[in-house]
Design brief:
- The chain is α/β, with parallel strands linked by helices.
- The chain has two domains: 325 residues, Alkaline Phosphatase, subunit A; 186 residues, no CATH class.
- It contains 19 helices and 21 strands.
- It is globular.
- The two termini are 45 Å apart.
Length: 547
C-alpha cells in the first residue's frame, strides 16, 4: 500500500463542488465520485503556518506551538516569522520514515530549513527567496535544476491591476514546473508516501476574488471582463496536472486530496491594536519622537495612505524595492508608529497575528509584563473579551462571531505561550490585523489589496485502495489526516496525536493500532538570517498576511 497526497493551499469546496459538478474539474470529480469527501475543519485561527503544522503532526496548535506566521521573539516584543525549527511534534512523514518506509515530500509550508527524512524533501512556503538549501539531501536542488530548470517554491508574482495576465501565467508556470519535478522524483526514486502542495490555489484566490465576485466592494467590471474566470483557470490547470501525476501511479494506492483552510471574500480590515489603544489597554511612550508619530497618525499620515499615494502615482513597486534592500520596514519603524513606540510598562494587552489573537501582557511571560497571573489576569482577560464583543461592523452588527479563551480550544506543552484570547470575525469577512506598524489610524475600514481571506472549511477527498465509495460525509478535521495516513500505511497511530483515524471512509474493518509517540522538541535556534527573514516577511506582505 502507498499513499499519494496532494495539498491545495486554500482549496475550498465552495468553488470545487460546483465546478466539478459542471464538468470543469474532471480529475477532482473522479476522485470525489469514486471515494469519499468532506469539508475539513481547519485550526483556530485558519492560518497557513498553524494549519499545515497541525496537518503534519496531527496535533492542535497548543501542542505543536505554532499559532500564526509571526511570533514574538523570546525576551522581546519584536516579531519574527516562524520556521520548522519552532515546531514541536514529529511530522507524519518522520513517523513513516522511522518505520522504514520511504517518503517524498514537496512544497509543504513551514518545512524550511529542510530536515532529514527517509527519502527526499523539498521545502515550501516560508522558504526565503533564493535559498540554496531548500532540499534534503542538499544536492537534490542541483538535480532538479539539471532536470527541469527553475524549481519555484512559490511564485513572486502578486496580482495588481494591469498585470493579471502576467500573474496567471506565472502561477501556471510555477505549478507546471513543480509537477515536472514531481514526475521526475516519483518515477526515479522509491516511495511509500508522496506529498505535493500547490500554493497557487491560495495565491490566485487572494488576488482575483474581487474579479470573480460581483458583490465585492473592489469589483472592477473592466478587470472582471478579463479575469472573472482567473481562479477557475488555476484550478483547471491544477486539475490537469493532477491527472498527469495520477497517470504515473501504480496500484495499490490511496489518493488523498486536501487543503489547510478554505477561502472567501474579505471586506474589512480590523486594526486590533488601534482598538486596544483607544480603550487604554495599549499605551504609547511620551517622548518627542513617539509624540510626532502619533500626531501624524491622528492626521491620517499612515503607511496605508502613503502606499495608496504610491499606487496612484504608479509607484506601487517602490515598497517592494525598499524591502528588497532591507530598508522598507526600517523606514516604517522610523517614521510611523510601531511596537517600538509602545510603553510596555503601562500596556495591559496587545495583538499580533492575522486573524483575531490578543495577548495579555503577563508578568513572568512577557519581558515587561505588568498583569499578575491569577485573578488580575482573569479580570483583565474578561474585560478585553467584553470589549471585543462590543465591536461593531460599519452596518452596526456585531463584528465578532466566535470567541474563546485559549484553554477552551488548545491544550498541550505550548498552552502558556498561546494567544490568551482568540476570536473569529463574522463570516471571516474581516481580517483582524494585529500588525506592529499601525498601518491605518482606523479601527475598521474597507479592505484593499487582497480580496479574499481564509475560512474554517477546508476540503478533503479520498479514493483508491483502502477507501470505500462512501460519498459525502461530515466531521473531518485537519488533525485527522496524519492518523488516517498512518493507518492506511499499516502503521500505529501515536497515542499523543489529537486527531483520529477517519474509519468511516475506510474499506476494511481493521482495528486502529495505537502505539509509540510523535513527540519531537523544537530547536532553540534562529531559523532565518536577517536577510532571509526580510525576504520571508516581504512575501507575507505581498499576500496580505502582514501589513
Amino acid at each position: 500500500m502507498k499513499v499519494f497526497c496532494i495539498g491545495l493551499d486554500g482549496g475550498t469546496f465552495d468553488l470545487i463542488r460546483p465546478w466539478a459538478a459542471s464538468g470543469k474539474l474532471p480529475t477532482f470529480k473522479k476522485i470525489m465520485d469514486g471515494g469519499a469527501w468532506s469539508e475539513l475543519r481547519s485550526t483556530v485561527p485558519p492560518v497557513t503556518a498553524s494549519a499545515w503544522s497541525s496537518f503534519m503532526t496531527g496535533k492542535n496548535p497548543g501542542a505543536h506551538g505554532l499559532f500564526d506566521f509571526m511570533q514574538r521573539r523570546s525576551g522581546s516584543y519584536d516579531l519574527a516569522p516562524v520556521s520548522v525549527l519552532d515546531r514541536d511534534g514529529k511530522a507524519v512523514w518522520d513517523l513513516i520514515g522511522e518505520a522504514g518506509k520511504s517518503v517524498i515530500v514537496m512544497n509543504v509550508p513551514v518545512t524550511w530549513p529542510p530536515q532529514p527524512v527517509n527519502g527526499l524533501l523539498v521545502t515550501g512556503m516560508l522558504t526565503p527567496r533564493g535559498a540554496e538549501n531548500f532540499t534534503y539531501p542538499r544536492e537534490l536542488a542541483e538535480e532538479l535544476r539539471s532536470e527541469i530548470g527553475d524549481y519555484i517554491v512559490y511564485s513572486d508574482e502578486v496580482y495588481s491591476k494591469g498585470r493579471g495576465e502576467v500573474f496567471l501565467k506565472a502561477l501556471k508556470y510555477s505549478a507546471a514546473q513543480r509537477v515536472k519535478a514531481a514526475e521526475h522524483l516519483m518515477t526515479k526514486y522509491p516511495w511509500d508516501f508522496f506529498m505535493l502542495v500547490f500554493p497557487e490555489s491560495d495565491t490566485v484566490s487572494h488576488g482575483l476574488w474581487a474579479c470573480y465576485d460581483p458583490t465585492h466592494h473592489e469589483h472592477d467590471p473592466a478587470e472582471a471582463t478579463q479575469f472573472r474566470d482567473g481562479i477557475l483557470e488555476i484550478y483547471q490547470h491544477i486539475d490537469g496536472l493532477l491527472a498527469r501525476l495520477i497517470s504515473n501511479l501504480q496500484s495499490p494506492i490511496s489518493i488523498l486530496l486536501m487543503s489547510d483552510h478554505g477561502h472567501g471574500p474579505v471586506r474589512n480590515f480590523l486594526y486590533v491594536n488601534n482598538y486596544l489603544a483607544q480603550l487604554g489597554y495599549l499605551k504609547f511612550k511620551s517622548d518627542l519622537a513617539t509624540g510626532l508619530k502619533r500626531l501624524a497618525f491622528q492626521l491620517g499620515i499612515t503607511p496605508r495612505t502613503i502606499y495608496q499615494l504610491l499606487l496612484t502615482l504608479g509607484l506601487g513597486k517602490l515598497r517592494r524595492t525598499l524591502d528588497k534592500r532591507r530598508g522598507g520596514r526600517g523606514l516604517l519603524k522610523r517614521f510611523f508608529l510601531s511596537f517600538g513606540d509602545v510603553d510596555w510598562a503601562r500596556t495591559r494587552a496587545y495583538s499580533i497575528g492575522y486573524i483575531g489573537e490578543v495577548h495579555i501582557n503577563l508578568r513572568g511571560r512577557e519581558p515587561q509584563g505588568i498583569i499578575e497571573p491569577g485573578a488580575d489576569y482573569e479580570r483583565t482577560r474578561d474585560q478585553v473579551i467584553a470589549d471585543l464583543r462590543a465591536l461593531k461592523l460599519p452596518d452596526h452588527t456585531p463584528l465578532v462571531e466566535h470567541l474563546w479563551k485559549k484553554e477552551e480550544i488548545y491544550h498541550g506543552t505550548h498552552l502558556a505561550q498561546a494567544p490568551d484570547i482568540l476570536f473569529l470575525p463574522r463570516n471571516l469577512e474581516t481580517i483582524a490585523f494585529g500588525d506592529f506598524e499601525f498601518g491605518s489610524n482606523k479601527i475598521v475600514e474597507p479592505s484593499y489589496g487582497v480580496s479574499s481571506s481564509h475560512r474554517m472549511n477546508g476540503m478533503f477527498a479520498a479514493s483508491g485502495a483502502g477507501v470505500k465509495p462512501a460519498g459525502e460525509f461530515a466531521g473531518a478535521r485537519l488533525i485527522d489526516l496524519a492518523p488516517t495516513i498512518l493507518h492506511l500505511l499499516g502503521l500505529p497511530v501515536p497515542n499523543d496525536m489529537d486527531g483520529r483515524v477517519l474509519t468511516e471512509i475506510l474499506a476494511d474493518s481493521r482495528a486502529v493500532e495505537y502505539g509509540g509517540s510523535s513527540e519531537g522538541r523544537a530547536e532553540i535556534a534562529d531559523g532565518y538570517s536577517a536577510e532571509e527573514e526580510a525576504e520571508v516577511m516581504e512575501r507575507l506582505q505581498d499576500l496580505g498576511y502582514i501589513s
